[in-house]
Design a protein that fits this description.
single chain, 289 residues, alpha/beta, four-stranded mixed sheet, 46% helix
């Protein structure tokens, strides 16, 4: 995907040790309606990765866990390595794509914060976390947390290589930010508390909608898509389906333990967004009865 170079004035970027600008809170409802590839084990065993945040590191303080960034600028952070640059380019494009959608709906838009992990363990707005969790979105501080080393793991262990597969990761996490701003995330969490027996099924809906939003972003920038991008994205979606991960772990497929959807569901959700380039189509995924 041929993304333009990021604009430091249009993104909020920092590291888990500091640096960058931190956004304020957002909220509201818009009519547009965790790839969270979290710990692979969490996906396999049906654990919500957000449940593990705050349980890592015992009583260690954030100062003990975090590596200080030394006041780096957004440009210094984004150009620190190839993957960081790709991620910042994706964030810039995502902001430029989604802000007009919110503006046309008359709803206040708040950019998320992109935080690059600078150590194996660090503190997020949702509590202590570890880079081994993989990319995740924290609604408390509206932060997308990424350790760029994960992209190598994604290619080697999941067979999901290519730049579009990596963009899909960022776009999926951004989808969770959209859910936070539109109120969908709060609605899902409330229903999970009311219906604990359906918690996993509700989480699947949330993840599939985020996949759909990732596809919408790509669909709205179809002129930038290169040959092979679609295949990279669909291959990535297929590789992180709950059923595929369970089989690859030598386990029996257990639908009750699904938290992100099957490979077929994830590909279908991504393709729905890609083909339609219409965020309202993603609303159908989380129609709750």
């Amino acid at each position: 995907m041929r993304l333009n170079r990021f604009n430091t004035n249009s993104i909020n970027v920092g590291t888990t040790g500091g640096g960058g600008r931190f956004p304020g809170g957002g909220g509201g409802k818009v009519g547009c309606g965790t790839i969270v590839i979290a710990i692979i084990a969490a996906l396999v065993f049906g654990v919500d990765p957000m449940q593990t945040i705050g349980m890592i590191g015992g009583s260690e303080t954030g100062q003990q866990i975090e590596q200080q960034a030394g006041g780096q600028t957004e440009e210094e952070i984004c150009t620190s390595n190839k993957y960081a640059l790709e991620t910042c380019n994706a964030l810039s494009s995502l902001n430029e794509t989604w802000e007009p959608v919110f503006r046309s709906a008359g709803v206040r838009f708040q950019q998320p914060m992109l935080k690059f992990a600078t150590s194996d363990r660090f503190r997020s707005g949702c509590g202590q976390a570890a880079s081994g969790m993989g990319p995740f979105y924290c609604p408390a501080d509206e932060g997308i947390y990424i350790d760029t080393r994960f992209y190598d793991t994604m290619e080697r262990q999941l067979g999901a290589g290519g730049d579009f597969a990596r963009y899909y990761v960022v776009a999926h996490e951004y989808g969770h930010h959209i859910q936070k701003l539109t109120g969908v995330a709060a609605q899902i969490r409330s229903l999970q508390q009311q219906r604990p027996g359906a918690s996993n099924q509700l989480q699947v809906l949330m993840e599939l909608q985020a996949d759909c939003y990732a596809g919408v972003w790509a669909g709205k920038n179809r002129n930038l898509i290169e040959p092979g991008d679609m295949e990279e994205g669909l291959r990535a979606a297929a590789s992180i389906g709950d059923d595929t991960l369970q089989r690859n772990a030598g386990q029996r497929v257990n639908p009750e333990g699904f938290t992100h959807g099957t490979s077929a569901q994830r590909m279908q959700a991504l393709k729905l967004g890609l083909d339609s380039a219409d965020d309202t189509q993603c609303d159908r995924i989380v129609e709750l009865r």
